[in-house]
Amino acid sequence: MLKATNLRKQYSNVLAVDGVSFEVGRGQVLGLLGPNGAGKTTTIRIVLNILQADAGVVSYDGLPFSPQTRNLVGYLPEERGLYRKSRVLDTILYFAQLRGMSASVAKAEAYNWLRRFGLLEHIGKKVEELSKGNQQKVQFVASVIHDPAYVVLDEPYSGLDPVNQMLFTEVFMELKQRGKAVIFSTHQMDAAEKLSDHLCLINSGQVVLKGSVRDIKKQHGRNSVHLEFDGDGAFLKSLQGVRNAIVYEHSAELELLDGVGTGAMLSSLIGKVDLRKFEIREPSLHSIFLQTVNMGPNATR
To answer: Are 72 and 111 in contact (CB under 8 A)?
Structure first.
């Protein structure tokens, strides 16, 4: 188990991380979420011993980060961490051998991963000659080729088209099934909702929401309606009986005030838009994220 307890980090007059705690066990995925500047990347860098915390403890199976635990971790950073002039295969082999793999084993594994990601035809190219999506795939291979027990992924979908996002999702699920402990930081709420067992939402350096996906949705799922419609839905944001509304061009998600019945809400919509779907269901993680972040760092604990 990877466990972080009461992490704290201050830069001058900015408290970047303030008492952050979470844990993730083998075979689990933790979604580490938050708006830009919330402290997610700083937290990840503390977990990986790239930054030193001012306070708090990080442990891997009860042990502190050390040269012995270093090779148990695979890290995909948000920024590109590749040598742009280096060739694809050479780059992967370099990182693999840094993690203690022999050249022959690393080469065999590299070919397996490159085949999986459709990159064999690019094996002799320089990294700078690849598209952003293919660079991200190379960086991912470099982070997991040594078969780490703990995998930390910071914005892994960056630069990927929908087809490759689906490929990455399949690989993430395989990592989980193989017993890896995965920390998964992303702004893509749909992916976080589908992949994560537990969530930790950070805002202004503090944990404002934490728990299993199921429990979090139950906590926020008392009275939520999803709509699909034709027409102008701008009025939905100010509709009486609606606490919060996320409105798109032809769909919306409404959180109703306590005591407001869905039948009454349906009646109030008839004639104002051409309804194609009116569905009562749990709120999306996207709406929970927006609601919690907008309430501020002391919203929920």
So the answer is: no
Cβ atoms of 60 and 72 closer than 8 Å: yes
Q: In whole angstroms, how far apart are CA 44 and each of 15, 22, 301? A: 15, 11, 21
Strand partners, 203: 206
CB 108 within 8 A of CB 135: no
Q: Give the pLDDT confidence of 147-187 residue by residue, as tens digits.
A: 999 999 999 998 899 999 999 999 999 999 999 999 999 88
Same domain, 82 and 201: yes
Measured over all CA atoms, what is the biggest interatomic distance in the chain, rounded to whole angstroms?
A: 70
Phi and psi at residue 101, to the nearest 5°: -80, 145
Same domain (yes/no): 186, 276? no
Q: For position 269, which CATH number holds?
A: 3.30.70
143 pLDDT band, cuts 50/70/90, is very high
Contact between 75 and 107 (Cβ < 8 Å): no
DSSP states along 97-130: HHTT--HHHHHHHHHHHHHHTT-GGGTTSBGGGS
CATH code, domain carrying 180: 3.40.50.300
Number of domains in the chain: 2
Paired tokens of 247: 């409105």
Rounded-to-integer distance, Cα 232 and Cα 243, Å: 19
Asked if 200 and 238 sit in the same domain, the reply is: no
pTM > 0.90: yes or no = no
